[in-house]
Amino acid sequence: MTAKIAINGYGTIGKRVADAVAAQDDMRVVGVAKARPDFEAKMAIRKGFALYAANPDAGTKFEKAGVKVSGALDDLARAADLVVDCTPEDSGYKPLYEKAGIKAIWQGGEEHSLTNLSFNAAANYEECLGAKFVRVPSCNTTGLIRTLYPLDDQLGVTDVLAVMVRRATDPGDSKKGPINAVEPELEMPSHHGPDVQSVLPKLNIHTIALKVPTTIMHVHALAVDLKRATTEDAVLDVWKRFPRVAFVSGADGVRSTAQIMELARDLSRNRADLYEIAVWRDGVHVTGGKRLFYFQAVHQESDVVPENIDAIRSMLEIQKDGRKSMEKTDQSLGIGIVK
Amino acid sequence: MTAKIAINGYGTIGKRVADAVAAQDDMRVVGVAKARPDFEAKMAIRKGFALYAANPDAGTKFEKAGVKVSGALDDLARAADLVVDCTPEDSGYKPLYEKAGIKAIWQGGEEHSLTNLSFNAAANYEECLGAKFVRVPSCNTTGLIRTLYPLDDQLGVTDVLAVMVRRATDPGDSKKGPINAVEPELEMPSHHGPDVQSVLPKLNIHTIALKVPTTIMHVHALAVDLKRATTEDAVLDVWKRFPRVAFVSGADGVRSTAQIMELARDLSRNRADLYEIAVWRDGVHVTGGKRLFYFQAVHQESDVVPENIDAIRSMLEIQKDGRKSMEKTDQSLGIGIVK
Amino acid sequence: MTAKIAINGYGTIGKRVADAVAAQDDMRVVGVAKARPDFEAKMAIRKGFALYAANPDAGTKFEKAGVKVSGALDDLARAADLVVDCTPEDSGYKPLYEKAGIKAIWQGGEEHSLTNLSFNAAANYEECLGAKFVRVPSCNTTGLIRTLYPLDDQLGVTDVLAVMVRRATDPGDSKKGPINAVEPELEMPSHHGPDVQSVLPKLNIHTIALKVPTTIMHVHALAVDLKRATTEDAVLDVWKRFPRVAFVSGADGVRSTAQIMELARDLSRNRADLYEIAVWRDGVHVTGGKRLFYFQAVHQESDVVPENIDAIRSMLEIQKDGRKSMEKTDQSLGIGIVK
Amino acid sequence: MTAKIAINGYGTIGKRVADAVAAQDDMRVVGVAKARPDFEAKMAIRKGFALYAANPDAGTKFEKAGVKVSGALDDLARAADLVVDCTPEDSGYKPLYEKAGIKAIWQGGEEHSLTNLSFNAAANYEECLGAKFVRVPSCNTTGLIRTLYPLDDQLGVTDVLAVMVRRATDPGDSKKGPINAVEPELEMPSHHGPDVQSVLPKLNIHTIALKVPTTIMHVHALAVDLKRATTEDAVLDVWKRFPRVAFVSGADGVRSTAQIMELARDLSRNRADLYEIAVWRDGVHVTGGKRLFYFQAVHQESDVVPENIDAIRSMLEIQKDGRKSMEKTDQSLGIGIVK
């Protein structure tokens, strides 16, 4: 029997999770809830998703706009086994889910304290088996865990300094800037460091963030102190053994995030997404055996999508083995081509 | 028997035409030629296209980079019925095609005088039946013809002023700017006006172009004087009867090119392309009955792709009826959803 | 006796008008009012301007931030002959000015109906002599009047189509976008056309606006139908006879707004401003004798500054002759170098 | 007697050094040499600088463009005591200067090995006294030395990691991108680390660089390990005792480089330059007593200008005391206001 999944919040992450759920054979989308009758809502209907009004006010708006909905969020919650909440942070739907008696996944905009359980498929799939409420950390945090967990697991990490050059807004937004400025996050560490520790509590990490005028990807520059001496090739080998890390190369003409997203489009995936964290092969440097530097790029719109699918399987205990869930998810999404 | 198509030049347009040819049942890709062994070349092989070296120098580069090629451009030309030349302007391959005795299509970077026949499926499909050499005009010119030809055909156009706010470079490029400036094209009219006349020789049109710091789409602001008085609804009806014009709406939240490309990604098409010209429904205005203003957005990377497919069918006389070719092309590419 | 001028609103326009007033010998700044104790407020004090709290709430904020103010806006108003209101639109200070019995100038964010008198030094200086309330239209409107009024005056204008490629926000702002999109103003005509008519009521003009990701200047592409046949040189001669139009040239390497602002910085003016409207000399084209095309660039932060100074002189009848006021203003600001 | 200074290369740096030399009372500009007759050349003449043709080819170009020059670079060299070479890297004028028997300063585009003496006023003024050939390191390197030298001098620095988020091109350029991408410098360390060591040979520093789509400033995120335990206030006190470090504050609304450059414009300096390195006061963080994090912004067009003036005084031994030269330079340029 396929699991019945609801999506609350049909924006950047929500619509991607919906498509990814629809691409699995062990779960299906019973409906998506949205607050505004904009083009994304119309597209949801066109795609065949049952559309629900996220709140009474939304219901009125949909009616006015002539967009037919299948009911209210309450109705959707009752029909589902699990809801993936992709609403803006602090939307406060937890009581509704509790009342409906369904499990729920939140995204990284929420605090870890909302669920006390933050998920990363490679790092703690088994820990989340059967859990009622789980949070998938943000794109940046997930990106950091993707490459740091393998390093810590295989080589031992004593200290991490990550400087995160963040895209300012998503490609589909035209309101936010800056157009021509760099904005450092003056509070330190940025929230990402503690957020990584919500999954990897023993990791010693300091994060620094700056916002720059680009929409397509975040780029992280990392300095990692290792317990065991290593080489650049050995580090690449570590990452090859873990899922959802892809390699790109300046020597192949992939000089910037522009070429990474071009390569992602060439892969003919849904929405031209790149679920993997892209590491520049020729940007990996080891000095003195134990200090590792590397650059990675994060597609902020999609890297958490496979994690959400795995979290569903873990929480609903569809699959007890994390590795097997990841393989299934990755195959369904076309992940693994670029190595 | 399926037509054997070669692609020379596997960049922005070439790789899209290759995928589009591969999506047809009456033609197939016999090979793609490329000059540099970069990530796009590797992706071509991954996609299953036979890769050829576009010139001897390229052959050496491919060998050095360890990228295996199936031969030289000469070999590819001999194996094909028609070559779609997507190389940079003035690459000068015409003699090679003539020697190989194959038909050829060039893109809009070339002058009309190279072929003396410029193609637009809706406007002059029949004129190009059986032609040896044909040119598909540039993205901007094709975009102008897409909406102007229907207007002229149905309502009569006496005068057009088109101001074209052009994207400065494609999303996959990171070298070109400007980052923070607007650059008018001081020569006037810009080359687009005469280029439109290469397909619609009687159209009275003046074009003005400016380059702005964006990568995703061109936007045209048009002022059109009509022979017959009309209304906004009547104009929309005209465009609905012609292919490859899509409507978007500010009222639906599509305020800028950011949301148009977001909508394109939501369509789950290959590379998130938008082959249609997008017209803002609520940006169409008629004053005094005979003066029409409208805005349209052009996805510079892909709008000429369906025209190339139709040009192939016309030149090889696979289909004598332009309407039928367009329908077939559009169905294969998923065009027609957004109306 | 020098006129006592208050500035209410010390942002982009206000701080420039304050500096410009301070540069005159027939008027002086009695104080500037501001709502927030940010770095601009501190800079005002550093410059020696008496700082006032624009409202009671602002007074509290200034006190908390330890920024000493000279009093409230009421106090400032009583000390002044005229206030230049550079507050955001609809700030609603008119009753306060009326109560204080002082004259006032507003900026282009306000509607013409607030004053029923909109000002442009070349066009209607004499009309505003002694007026109580006057409005200086926005940067774009002022830019259009600067070049259109001379054309109409000397050659007769029958019809204008202006397409305005607008900067999205000012250089000092880092919140607003778009970062990578073009946004057309779907309502038509844009408000600029009617706004030009608030000064030049008989001018037949249609304006179209688009917002693009740049911060430094607006660029206008204009198509003007003239009554009398002319030539490109004759048009340049017309503009040379009127103030505040400067010429730049693509042949000199001024290809875009980047080089115009570079040139403005090279002029060593205050804040690197360009008060003139910059017209590309080699972008002026006349077709058929009576149709004129040209491009102009508008420095949105400063082109209205000299108009404000002249408006003060006109309203306080310091100088009855507009030409003489303009000359005095221009000399004080260094205008007139680039011809 | 005032020193006679020639400027070879009148672009971004050259024109600023020319203005700065002209602002001193112990040196004067005897001429500026340029290669192209563009708007900057015309502006040089307008400013009263004698213009020379940088090479024979340039001479021809100037003649064709009708721009009158005072002679060739040879003539200029013979008339000068010292030349400030602001030409593009590897322009190769050293033999010419040697033949003319004049001293020369190069900019950071050149290698340290060209002069074997790299200059920073605070760090090694005395070392360069009387030197024949000196190099002023690049904007980024100078920026790093400005804040690191004081830290090392006062608190002892054991290790530095600097991640440099670089502007992609200068505001006056409209050719270079990226428009929407982040480009890491894959080679590591970036050249800046060794370049800092050309002035501070004992400093242990690793630099990482990324290019982002902005034109106005570089931003550095630094992690510094100190010998002696300190506090945030103590660090700010260290920098206050050294010249050319300015403080800005997010609490004052200076959230990004946009507001820093706005503040610079408010200072009414020549070209709205900011010669100081701007450090965010509320972005300085000390953890564990000995690890310091901070952000600084570098105005790439102007921070080396005062260093060039001091280098002239040191090389020509106009002033033996570096502190006194710096004070004189700073006073002439208006430096020191923002503390």
User: On the 0-100 scale, what is the average pLDDT of chain A?
Assistant: 96
Q: Considering residues with a beta carbon less than 8 A from a beta carbon on another chain, report the largest interface and each chain's count.
A: B-C, 39 and 39 residues
How many strand elements of chain A?
15
CATH level-four homologous superfamily name of the largest domain in chain A = NAD(P)-binding Rossmann-like Domain
Strand content of chain A: 15-25%
The CATH class name of the largest domain in chain A reads Alpha Beta
Along the chain, the helix and strand elements of chain A come as EHEHEHEHEHEHEHEEHEEHEHEEEHH
What would you call the structural class of chain A? alpha/beta
| Distinct helical segment count of chain A | 12
- Major β-sheet annotation of chain A: 8 strands, mixed
In one word, what is the shape of chain A?
globular
* C-alpha-based Rg of chain A, rounded: 20 Å
Distance between the termini of chain A: 34 Å
Helix content of chain A: 25-40%
CATH architectural group of the largest domain in chain A: 3-Layer(aba) Sandwich
CATH topology call of the largest domain in chain A: Rossmann fold
Oligomer: homotetramer
Structure overview:
The first copy, chain A, has 339 residues and is an alpha/beta fold. Chain A has two domains: 3-136 and 304-333, Rossmann fold (3-Layer(aba) Sandwich), CATH 3.40.50; 139-298, Dihydrodipicolinate Reductase, domain 2. The first copy, chain A, is 32% helix and 23% strand. The first copy, chain A, is built from twelve helices and 15 strands. In chain A, strands 8, 9, 10, 11, 12, 13, 14 and 15 form an eight-stranded mixed sheet that branches. Chain A has a seven-stranded parallel sheet with strand order 4-3-2-1-5-6-7, sandwiched between helices. In chain A, helix 1 (12-22) crosses helix 11. The longest helix of chain A is centred in the middle third of the chain and has 16 residues, at 139-154. The radius of gyration of chain A is 20 Å and the shape is globular. The mean pLDDT of chain A is 96. Chain B binds chain C through residues 161, 163, 165, 167, 178, 180-184, 186, 188, 206, 208, 210-217, 219, 221, 223, 250, 255-259, 280, 282-283, 285, 287, 293, 295, 297, and chain C through 161, 163, 165, 167, 178, 180-184, 186, 188, 206, 208, 210-217, 219, 221, 223, 250, 255-259, 280, 282-283, 285, 287, 293, 295, 297.
